[in-house]
Automatic annotation (TrEMBL):
It comes from the Bacteria. Keywords: Hydrolase, Metal-binding, Protease. Residues 207-339 form the Peptidase M20 dimerisation domain. InterPro entries: Cyt/Met_Dipeptidase, Peptidase_M20, Peptidase_M20_dimer. It comes from Nocardia goodfellowii. The keyword 4Fe-4S does not apply. The keyword Glycoprotein does not apply. This is Acetylornithine deacetylase/succinyl-diaminopimelate desuccinylase-like protein.
Length: 449
């Protein structure tokens, strides 16, 4: 076990090795989506397992679950009287998209301006390397017990999400570090304390047996696309706020983006207004969002001069972290069924749901992590949230009803995860590794007190 006072120097000395490991891992195109070589996913699994073993995780094995990539699972026994910490991450990545849009090839990790560029550098391979760095900072003998869970199909959809409830004994821990998020801005240590829930709703309308001539029949024949558009406009008010009764929105008390900051990060075109009113955090983290993500209608390139007989929209609905997403889905369904634009009945159905998450932040793990992050970054820690969902968070929470769950990581708002030129700052990688190593000490001390 490394003395706490030595940790900053030790982690700094590890930086070249951690950078090299990250480059090696990013170079493996471990895309778990159908149609991509599965051997690359296995290569990444084997690399992570080997490096964890070198980092003191001697009890390591693979969880081979049906219809998903192999999961790296390992343990370091807890010293007598010490708590156990679960470390989570994933080694799979999103597809690169149009590689011509990247400044450097997505699977040729490139170091420039203090960052590593490449697909998965931020999401989530640098977080895996941060775990390795924290363990190596303690010489593979941390002052807490360790359980490591590194999966390989998080981006595509993994059956691991249902596994902890079936095998809770494998996931028992006093604190769970879900390292798949990051800082609201560079240099600002951030704990993610809430995740919005998610569901889908589908709206369709059929008004005619077939298209009819718009000159002969337009003006009286019911237009399916027009009816659908009229219904969709009722989902928001004139300012762009969600206007569906029953969807929860609360005051957000954590850190916020400024409107200019958010516009830059989101790539909003100059002169475009943002939707909604009130603080950004309420709009994107602590309130609902309804996004039209797909539309079945004639494409403009081949459109005929005809009244459209059928149209369908797919809606993605995000709900408050503490609202049941099934309840939110039903609110949207009931709203749309009541609309009846021009007296036309809509067919509205719901899709799958993913629960949100709201962390309890008053326990010893949060106190220890805030102190550890403050020391690593040299500044105060802030609370943030995310509009996305991490389904495994709730699965692990269900398997560990008494554990504290902390979401943090190497990413930042400008890291371009899932986009072109994804990158992670090496300073953030260093700070996460150091904070995690510090946390092991502080959490052990607080749990013994």
């Amino acid at each position: 076990m490394t003395p706490r006072g030595d940790l900053p120097g030790i982690v700094d000395a590890l930086r070249p090795d951690l950078t090299h490991l990250l480059k090696q891992l990013v170079a493996i195109p471990s895309i778990a989506f159908p149609g991509y070589p599965p051997e690359n996913v296995r290569r990444a699994h084997d690399f992570v397992a080997a490096e964890l073993r070198k980092s003191g995780v001697e009890d390591i094995r693979t969880l081979e679950l049906p219809d998903t990539a192999p999961v790296v699972y390992g343990r370091i026994p807890a010293p007598p009287g010490a708590p156990t910490v679960l470390l989570y991450g994933h080694y799979d990545v999103q597809p690169a998209g149009d590689e011509s849009r990247w400044d450097t090839p997505p699977f040729t990790p490139t170091e420039r301006d203090g960052a590593i560029y490449g697909r998965g550098a931020a999401d989530c391979k640098s977080n895996v390397i941060a775990h390795i760095g924290a363990l190596r900072a303690h010489g593979g003998r941390p002052p807490v017990g360790i359980t490591v869970v590194i999966e390989g199909q998080e981006e595509y959809g993994s059956v691991l999400d249902g596994y902890p409830a079936e095998h809770p004994e494998l996931f028992q821990a006093d604190a769970l570090l879900i390292c798949d998020t990051g800082n609201i801005r560079v240099g600002t240590p951030t704990l993610t304390t809430a995740l919005r829930g998610v569901t889908d709703v589908f709206v369709e309308v059929r008004t005619l047996a077939a298209p009819v001539h718009s000159g002969q029949f337009g003006g009286a024949a019911p237009d399916a696309l027009l009816a659908l558009m009229a219904a969709l406009t009722t989902l928001h008010d004139a300012d762009g706020n969600v206007a569906v009764p029953g969807l929860r929105r609360d005051t957000w008390t954590g850190v916020n983006f400024t409107e200019a900051e958010f516009a830059t990060i989101a790539g909003v075109e100059p002169g475009m207004p943002l939707l909604g009113t009130g603080p950004i955090g309420e709009r994107i983290w602590y309130g609902p969002a309804i996004t039209v993500i797909g539309l079945d209608a004639p494409p403009t390139a081949t459109a005929a001069s005809a009244v459209v007989p059928y149209a369908k929209a797919a809606l993605n609905v995000r709900v408050h972290p503490e609202q049941d997403p099934a309840e939110g889905r039903q609110a949207v369904i009931e709203h749309l069924r009541k609309v009846r634009p021009y007296g036309i009945e809509l067919q509205v159905t719901g899709g799958e749901v993913g629960a949100g998450f709201a962390a309890g932040t008053s326990g010893p793990a949060y106190a220890a992590m805030r102190a550890a992050m403050r020391r690593a970054w040299g500044t105060e820690v802030v609370d943030s949230a995310t509009g996305g969902s991490i389904p495994l968070t709730n699965a692990l929470a269900a398997a560990n009803p008494g554990a504290e769950i902390l979401l943090l990581g190497t990413e930042d708002a400008g890291c371009n995860m899932h986009g072109f030129d994804e990158r992670v700052l090496l300073s953030e990688l260093r700070n996460v590794a150091l904070a995690e190593a510090e946390f092991f000490h502080l959490f052990a001390e607080r749990m013994r007190a």
